Amino acid sequence: MHLRLADALGSAQREEAHRVELQTFLAVVFPNLREPKKFWGVSDLTQIMESQRELNRAMSQLSRILELSGNPIAVLENVEESEDIAIRPGVVWNIPEDAKAYLLDLLQGGGVNLHINYIDLLYRTLHDISESPRSAFGGTERDLSGVALELELHPLLQKVQRKRIIRSATYKRRNEMILRLLEKYRGLDFGSNHLRVAWGPVLPQDITRQVNNEQVLVQNGIHSRRRAMDDLGIRDPDSEFKQWLEERETILKMNQELNARPVRNERRERVSTAQAEGVEE
Question: Does pTM surpass 0.70?
Answer without folding.
Answer: no
